[in-house]
Design a protein that fits this description.
Elements lengths: L1 E4 L25 H13 L5 E5 L9 H10 L3 E5 L4 H4 L11 H7 L3 E5 L5 H8 L3 H14 L11 E5 L10 H16 L5 E4 L6 H9 L3 H10 L3 H4 L8 E3 L5 E2 L2 H5 L5 E2 L2 E2 L7 H5 L10 H4 L12
Parallel strand pairs: 1-2, 1-7, 2-3, 3-4, 4-5, 5-6
Antiparallel strand pairs: 7-8, 9-10
Length: 304
């Protein structure tokens, strides 16, 4: 999987955001880098998946181009879709994004969206006042296009992050709860729930330190280390690309500037070498205990 963070601009400022994304961020991947990523995808059949993230990735000027050209290459495209951007539009230009559900359906994009909980209070506490209501409206728009429905082939997955400094319940049980409650209250359908541990970096780390809970949280992660979960961590099958073309083992390492070094120099999309990449030594730090605690955590949910 080639995961690309194409912007740090977002219409929200979530408490747990490891990217520190917000409406004030200006970082954007330019067209030269977008085209180079497409060249890498075209030249490597073993890279079957493109995972587009941000910020709200839809706020990059070249987002639509990246999706449509990657689909022409027969790549599976996943978008870390910020549900509310469909209704809010671009916070800088005011441009409407209400076309997104139809665009995603036409391009058979796998939509992956954060939904901290199936209740308004907990979702708004983590993502901001009014976010839950807008998220529900946006999800229903996706459902109308066939996302999350059986036999359509249009996949809608949700991401759950605990609201606080603790490990979550099992992914299987939480998914069952989400499906039951969202269907009962709103008639919402979706495919999978991905449970992801809050990573002790950037904005969430700062919050933990303000509360005097950082050491306690790290101890909890270390004590819950699971060797089986470590076998399935995402850095073993994915690389992450920043808006300026630098390559990292994962999105979290990217935010900590722990770039990939292969052949004695930092690797970027402009000196990309697949063979060196797959034989690299993966960089790790204390935050990696977040991916190996309990049932594990990755971009696709639990790993064990």
């Amino acid at each position: 999987t080639l995961q690309i963070n194409i912007t740090k601009l977002c219409n929200q400022t979530c408490l747990h955001c490891h990217v520190d994304a917000s409406p004030k961020r200006k970082e954007q991947m330019d067209l030269e880098a977008i085209n180079r990523c497409l060249e890498i995808l075209a030249g490597n059949e073993t890279i079957r998946n493109l995972d587009i993230t941000g910020g709200a990735p839809e706020l990059n000027t070249h987002f639509d181009l990246l999706v449509t050209e990657a689909r022409k290459l027969n790549k599976h495209v996943m978008v870390r879709h910020n549900l509310t951007v469909t209704l809010d539009g671009n916070p800088v230009t005011g441009e409407s994004k209400d076309y997104l559900p139809q665009f995603y359906a036409q391009n058979q994009v796998e939509v992956i969206s954060s939904l901290p909980y199936y209740q308004e209070y907990f979702t708004d506490k983590q993502r901001g006042k009014g976010v839950f209501e807008k998220s529900i409206e946006s999800i229903l728009m996706l459902n109308k296009k066939g996302f999350g429905e059986k036999d359509t082939g249009l996949v809608l997955n949700f991401v759950y992050n605990p609201v606080g400094a603790f490990l979550s319940a099992s992914q299987e049980s939480l998914e069952a709860d989400f499906k039951r409650e969202l269907d009962k209250k709103y008639g919402i359908k979706f495919n999978n729930l991905f449970v992801i541990t809050n990573m002790p970096i950037n904005r969430f780390k700062q919050q933990l330190k303000r509360l005097g809970a950082y050491d306690e949280y790290m101890t909890k992660l270390v004590n819950a280390f699971n060797p089986t979960a470590a076998e399935g961590v995402m850095c073993r099958s994915l690389v992450s690309v920043s808006h300026d073309g630098k390559i990292y083992d994962c999105d979290f390492n990217q935010m900590l500037d722990m770039d990939v070094v292969a052949g004695g120099e930092p690797m970027t999309i402009f000196n990309f070498d697949y063979d060196k990449l797959v034989n690299r030594k993966i960089m790790f730090g204390s935050h990696c205990f977040g991916c190996t605690a309990g049932s594990g955590s990755s971009c696709g949910g639990t790993t064990a």
